[in-house]
Amino acid sequence: MTRISENSAGGGLPRTDNDKARKYVLVICLLAALSGLLTGLDIGIISGVLGPFGSEFHASTIQLEWVVGGMLAGDAVGATFGGFFTQYLGRKATLILAAALFFIGASGCAMSGSTSAMIAFRVVVGVGLGLCDLTGPLYLSEIATTSQRGAMGSLYQLLKTVGIFLAFVSNSFLAFTGSWRAMLMVEALPALIFMIIFIFLPRSPRWLMINGRSEEALETLFSLRETEAEARQELAAMEEQLKVRQDGWHLLKNNRNFRRSVGLGMLLMVMQQFAGINIIMYYAPKILAAAGFSDQAQMWCTALIGLLNMLMTLVAVRYADRWGRKPILYAGYASMAGAMMCMAIILGIGPSTAGLQLAALAMILIFVGGFAMSAGPLMWVICSEIQPLAGRNLGLSISTGTNALSNLLVGTTFLSMMEGLGSAATFWIFAVFNILAIILLYFFVPETKDVPLETIEKRLMSGVRLRNLGR
Ligand code: BGC
Fold first, then answer.
1. 3-class SS at 293?
2. What SS3 string covers 327-355?
């Protein structure tokens, strides 16, 4: 079958031959997943900035917490209200807007002359982050074919961990200069490049359909699917699905079962953030300092943490569809709880010997590895699987917003907890959160591996217990 030779459907990328459609989808997904890389760069950069920025501006602990927290507050706003932009501007335009906000925010941070200017521009970056976290996975799921959907969902998280790793490495290289401004520019430049790249992405066929532009949707699908029949079939299925009106607020008010899935989505995100991953992502050098590491060693150990975070995410990408989500989550939370407990004990004794310092580093690595293979990617996956179609957008906005708010709470209290309660007690608290998560996992979280989304929805709506929604 001859295929259209030019992509006129909203993107300027060259059209593909029939058998190349799969690769074309892959390239588009990779390019769109660069939005995940941007969020990762942002999460990672700040750990290197805090030290030199804090000394230059004599920033207090609370001010430093808000240099981190400003971004998280923006994140909460972007994630919660991003649904408006994805719906009215479209997925592609929202990605472009998010990259522009990253560019403006990161450049503003790099040029800021006071702590308050820094915090204000961190809020701008944060809005970009929230928009990406909501739109990136959504766009990927709408561009990918059904069989690629799971992997493409994890691709976003994978590129986020790549971004965190690259930021840690670049911080380590720049650490000797003490130039926090240069560190921040490492985030601004890719944002500008990615913004231009996003302009060339095709529009999401689903968004085109929602806006009554079915011909453009079909044209886009022709370029993304292997056969015209497949494209037409998908269009028809979409038409059918869109008859289900997105009426999340109405459903939330009137349907107890939808409130249960929204509650579960919120719980999953609280469990993810209260595990304590971001105290490591934002404050690793400070924790390593408490464990007795020198300045230079702190930065390189942080890069090692980033590398492990990235590599262990591959375990989830590869095995979540084979072993199931819950066994991996149990293993991940057990390692995280154990590592936090050992870390608390080591910090309690005081890491006075090289052996204890290495043990502290090993515990951080076990913790991060446990998170990256489990809660990191899988909480996002499960959140997107449990919401019924009619309330999916709202359900996802609420869980993404909850993720950001919990992140904000942990990120803006950690340094004060370390100062007020001491490092050992702080780590005991996180150990308890991880143990609690194992109990919550048992009682409330369903195993969704291999279960069609329609089945999950049917069970949810007929009142089946949350833990039995899957298998
Ligand atoms: C979390 C982020 C975290 C990242 C670390 C994500 O799943 O939502 O808050 O920084 O994992 O890789």
1. coil
2. HHHHHHHHHHHHHHHHHHHHHHHCCCCHH
CA of 38 to the centre of ligand 1 (A): 13
pTM of the model: 0.87
- Pocket test residue of 278, 315, 371 for ligand 1, highest count of atoms within 8 A of CB: 278
Is the CB–ligand 1 distance for residue 305 below 6 Å? no
Find tokens 């590129």 and name the residue.
159
Residue corresponding to tokens 């472009």: 96
Residue with the smallest CA separation from ligand 1 atom 12 is 161
Judge contact between 306 and 167, C-beta under 8 A: yes
What is the torsion angle, in degrees rounded to the nearest 10, for the CA atoms of residue 99, residue 274, residue 271 and residue 123?
-20
**pLDDT tens per residue, range 44-73:** 999 899 999 999 999 999 999 999 999 999
**Which amino acid would we find at residue 442?**
Y
- The count of residues in the chain is 471
Residue 23 CA to its chain's centroid (Å): 25
User: How far does residue 239's CA lie from ligand 1's centre (Å)?
Assistant: 34
Q: State how far the Cα of 242 lies from the Cα of 264, in Å rounded to an integer.
A: 25
